[in-house]
Each structure stands twice: as C-alpha cells, then as structure tokens.
Amino acid sequence: MEQRLGGRTVAVLLEEGFEDLEFWVTVMRLREEGAAVTIVGTEAGKRCRGKHALEATSEAAARDVSADALDALVVPGGWAPDKLRRYPEVTDLVRKVHDQGKVVGLICHAGLVGISAGIVAGSQATGSLGIKDDLVNAGATWVDEPAVRDGNLVWGRVVEDIPDFCRELVDAIAGRG
Predict the structure, then answer these.
(1) Tell me, what's the pLDDT at 101?
(2) Which domains does the chain have, with CATH numbers?
(3) Within the chain, where are the H helices?
(4) How far lies 56's CA from each of 36, 61, 67, 127, 138, in Å?
C-alpha cells in the first residue's frame, strides 16, 4: 500500500478525558499512511484515560514542540479540549501551526481549542452540536457535515464521522485537493 504521508510529522494532542476513538483511530490512520506521529500533552510522560477507559501517554510537552517541526496538528474531541484550551502553551502551538499554513485537524469538541487559539473566525466549521453556538460566536460559519475542509483547517463532526474526518485529514496533509 502506498503511504501518502511518509516524511510528514504530525502532533496529536492528548489530555485526560479524550474521546478514545477520535484519538486512537486518527493516530492509527496517520501512522498507517506513514506519518511520524508524536503524542503531545501538557507535560511529557503524562498517562491519560479516555472517556471510555482506553489510555494513552504523552511523548512530549506542548511547550517543547516547535510548530516549525510539524506538518500538521490534530486535536481529538471528548472532554480533553476543554482542559487543553486552558494552557497557553497548547493554544500557542495550535495558533503557530495554523499561522504557518499547516494543517490543523479538529473533531467533535476540539473546536474549543481552535476558538481559544483564535483560529476559527471566518472559517466554515463543524463539530459536536454542543459547541455549535461557541463556534458561531467565535466567528465561524457552522456547517452540519461529517467533515469539512476550509483552507488549512480540517473539521470532523462526531465519532460516527471519523472515516470522513480521517479521509479529509490525510488528503489535506498529503497536499491533495
């Protein structure tokens, strides 16, 4: 199988209460395509438990990761985004990746991190219906679609839409479409 993301480096954010499938399926899909995936949290070596009891451990702290070294950054949903958005080193990293024109993937509640990073205004966006008003109030245009790509932002709605989100994410990172 052709690996479309060979040589690409992607950070996937992690914090307590992450949505298990949005995290693990996305990580596995990116790795399957040949991307070098680094799990990034608020501190290196932090073991986190997902909403449905799967676990993951951060490999690096956001403050130690350079946007210059990344081709993309992904924020899974769950309860984790509401925690991640409280750390300036996380929102700064997200903003820098976005401002460099690199891909930022946001699924479900991850739009909360995008809002706090100040990157959603003027963008078409989707996510969990629970954050629709937050996105609209932050200047995004809500689209009720499984996956949406607007510029370098890739959005996914909910768990059931992971295949569509991953397809858009991989295509965006690979530079297609």
Answers:
(1) 98
(2) 9-174 (3.40.50.880)
(3) 20-32, 80-84, 88-99, 111-117, 132-137, 162-174
(4) 16, 14, 22, 23, 31
Indicate the pTM of the whole model: 0.97
**Which residue has 């969990």 as its token pair?**
128
User: Would you say 105 and 72 are in contact if contact means Cβ atoms under 8 Å apart?
Assistant: yes
Helix (H, G, I), strand (E, B) or coil at 46: coil
3-state class of 37 per DSSP? strand
Instruction: Quickly tell me which residue has 């307590």 as its tokens.
Output: 16
Q: What is the mean pLDDT of residues 89-109?
A: 98
Sheet containing 153-156, strands listed edge to edge, beginning at the edge strand earlier in sequence: 60-61, 36-41, 9-13, 72-75, 103-107, 153-156, 147-150
> What span, in angstroms and rounded, lies between the C-alpha atoms of 6 and 125?
28
Write out the catalytic residue numbers. 109
User: Phi and psi for 17 in degrees, rounded to 5?
Assistant: 85, 15
CA 97 to chain centre: 11
Neighbouring residues of 58: CB distance < 8 A, sequence distance ≥ 6 = 14, 39, 40, 41, 42, 43, 44, 45, 46, 48
Summarize the confidence of residues 86-93 as an average pLDDT. 98
Answer yes or no: are the C-beta atoms of 76 and 70 closer than 8 Å.
Answer: no
On the 0-12 / 13-18 / 19+ scale of CB atoms within 10 A, 137 is exposed
